[in-house]
Amino acid sequence: MEIISMNVRFAGLLLVTAIFPCVAQAADVSCKTAECHTSIGGTQNMHEPVKEGDCSGCHKQTNPLHPLKGAKSFAMTAQGAALCYQCHDAFGKKKALHPPVKDGECAYCHKPHGGAGRFLLEGGDDQTALCMGCHDAAPFKQKVKHGPVAVGACTKCHDPHESNEKALLKGPVWESCLKCHADFLKSLKGAAFIHPPVKDGPCTSCHNPHGSAIPQLLKKKMPDVCLECHPGLAKKLTAKVPHKPLQDEGGCGNCHSTHFSKSKGLLAGEEKDVCLGCHDTDKLGKPPLRNIKKEIEGKKFLHGPIEMGECKACHSPHGSDFFRLLNKSYPADLYAPYKEGLYDLCLECHEKNLLKFAETTIYTNFRNGKRNLHFVHVVDKRKGRTCRVCHEAHASSGEKLISKEGVQFGEWKIPLNFKITPTGGSCAPGCHRAFKYDRDKPETYGAETK
């Protein structure tokens, strides 16, 4: 009877094994090599317990028979994040938690048995598809992409679990950016002038960290992005005479170094050099730019602001309502009789009473006795001559910036033939006969000069 009973039990075991081939077997047989779980472990990067065949680290058998038709014979050894925290350090000690971490749903991002990418992630090292499963994809599909975004390296900047910084950044914005932009940091340390948003604020004040439709990942095109902090310049940009570089693609960046500089005003170089970077040819623009570099090259006498390298003393670099981007009023025409306010540009630095009195002994040395010859030339109601009829605005080989070559008068340059003496001088221009003048011993002129 005992032999028959043993045979029956053995036959029953064979029947169960035949029906349930994955029944728990000897401890040295791993689940991933059994007939039921052949797909587990077939990935490039396996979870360590899977790699070692230690399924019991996460799974516990709740029924001696496995599998059970219509029921489960295994359960997890813990629920949610508590399962992972059996081996991994727990999160939740920092200010910001990634929502899946906060909800204890590690499997939202990680494959529990293995994944194509590191850290049991699906999709290899490109994390784009994984992150876009929850996040809005629009910012990541822009024309211009941040380098890490372009290759799906989201965790280069963001911590995937928790952080003390906003947006789960691995560190403060400034520090996060400089971890890659090391060349920028090196130059920044030697800069005399730093743009306040770079020095005091986050890089994201001006740049989108993921993508933009605008070069350099700017939030807005130039000059709009600059006007958010420099609203006072808006009026200049809509002036009658705009500075053309501001209308070009580079905008403010055509003249300014947007992060830091060795020059005042964050200029890309010394002020005069920046201006002459464009004003060194007469082939650009319609009408063509004046070749100022050629005009001043080799000249013995420079206008004071040019000598100091300050073009902005006379010109507004952003825009102006006046002729040639001038800071103040000055006639655009060659002839313009003086009236109050018309010559404000020149009279801002030069003697303010220069053109107010027909006779003087103090306001000008260009006089015949007491007769103010500036007044004679400029205040003439019929044909008042502007300053540039005799003087060069930037540089000259002649004293007092008197033009040696003469002013352009249509197709002819009117020669001045100016000569200076200790107490006066003389000129014999193409517009009148030779005249002398003397402050101490006045010359006597004919009736035509009255």
UniProtKB/TrEMBL annotation:
Keywords: Signal. Residues 1-26 form the signal peptide. InterPro entries: Multihaem_cyt_sf (IPR036280), Paired_CXXCH_1 (IPR010177). Residues 47-91, 98-137, 146-184, 195-233, 243-283, 303-352 form the Doubled CXXCH motif domain. NCBIfam families: paired_CXXCH_1. This is Cytochrome C. It comes from Oryzomonas rubra. The lineage of its organism: Bacteria, Pseudomonadati, Thermodesulfobacteriota, Desulfuromonadia, Geobacterales.
